[in-house]
């Protein structure tokens, strides 16, 4: 009897793993046919069909009636959005980045760390002549973005080393940090100055200045950044002053002193 119960649990866990694999695969494509999907998740077509039907019944997958192809629904977005709205600092931070953008006339981002990556939570304003890759809900590396390095600077060097050993650094531009020694040297400078700089390390022609902020519960609850064209760096002192001013304000409003 016990063996039968354990077998049932194992089967259910396997089905959950397979269903999650289907969702994660569909999230990477506009849509897929059943055959394409079954090939990508390495499952038999009949098994894939059964799991897809279950996910459709629960609202996680849509099927285009004309093309017969499947795509991930917006239910995952709604669930994630509920989690985002439950993060207490968001309303405070969102209000402040709007003020910061108005003050600087530049694009301002709000991010949190998610599984050793930067997750863009909000974006406000538009810098002159700057077209950026960042979009709300997308991710970026920690090591080559100003917001990411600001968050990394709050970790002990041993934790930074562990992070570095877990990734394969990609040369995004000719200025991207690609060695651990370079990263540590820059993090030391960030700790001294209080702000981080992305000097065309993630996107050419774009400079970002960032600072992490804290809450009553977390040393690094998130980070904010100002993104600007390289030509506007003649006013670097103005922008670094503003990022420090607003990150401090957010921390204070969140109960960190």
UniProtKB/TrEMBL annotation:
Domain HTH iclR-type: 13-74
UniProt keywords, alphabetically: DNA-binding, Transcription, Transcription regulation
Molecular function terms from GO: DNA binding; DNA-binding transcription factor activity
Domain IclR-ED, residue spans: 75-256
SUPFAM superfamilies per the UniProt record, alphabetical: GAF domain-like, Winged helix' DNA-binding domain
One Pfam short name: IclR_C
One biological process term in Gene Ontology: negative regulation of DNA-templated transcription
Function according to Swiss-Prot or TrEMBL: May be an activator protein for the gylABX operon.
Protein name: Glycerol operon regulatory protein
Protein source organism: Trichococcus pasteurii
Lineage per the UniProt record: Bacteria, Bacillati, Bacillota, Bacilli, Lactobacillales
């Amino acid at each position: 009897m016990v063996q039968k119960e354990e077998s049932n649990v194992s089967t259910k866990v396997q089905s959950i793993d397979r269903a999650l694999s289907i969702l994660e695969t569909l999230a990477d494509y506009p849509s897929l046919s059943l055959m394409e999907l079954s090939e990508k998740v390495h499952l038999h077509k009949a098994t894939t069909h059964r799991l897809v039907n279950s996910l459709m019944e629960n609202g996680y997958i849509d099927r285009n009636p004309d093309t017969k192809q499947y795509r991930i629904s917006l239910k995952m977005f709604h669930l994630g959005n509920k989690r985002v709205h439950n993060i207490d600092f968001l309303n405070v931070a969102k209000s402040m980045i709007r003020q910061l953008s108005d003050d600087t006339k530049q694009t301002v981002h709000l991010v949190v760390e998610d599984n050793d990556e930067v997750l863009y939570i909000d974006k406000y304003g538009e810098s002159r002549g700057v077209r950026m890759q960042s979009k709300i809900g997308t991710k970026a590396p920690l090591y080559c973005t100003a917001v990411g390095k600001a968050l990394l600077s709050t970790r002990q060097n041993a934790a930074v080393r562990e992070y570095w050993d877990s990734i394969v650094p990609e040369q995004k531009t000719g200025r991207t940090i690609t060695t651990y020694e370079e990263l540590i040297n820059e993090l030391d400078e960030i700790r001294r100055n209080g702000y981080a700089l992305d000097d065309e390390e993630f996107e050419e022609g774009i400079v970002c200045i960032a600072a992490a902020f804290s809450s009553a519960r977390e040393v690094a609850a998130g980070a904010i950044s100002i993104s600007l064209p390289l030509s506007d760096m003649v006013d670097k002192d103005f922008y670094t002053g503003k990022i420090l001013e607003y990150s401090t304000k957010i921390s204070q409003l969140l109960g960190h002193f």
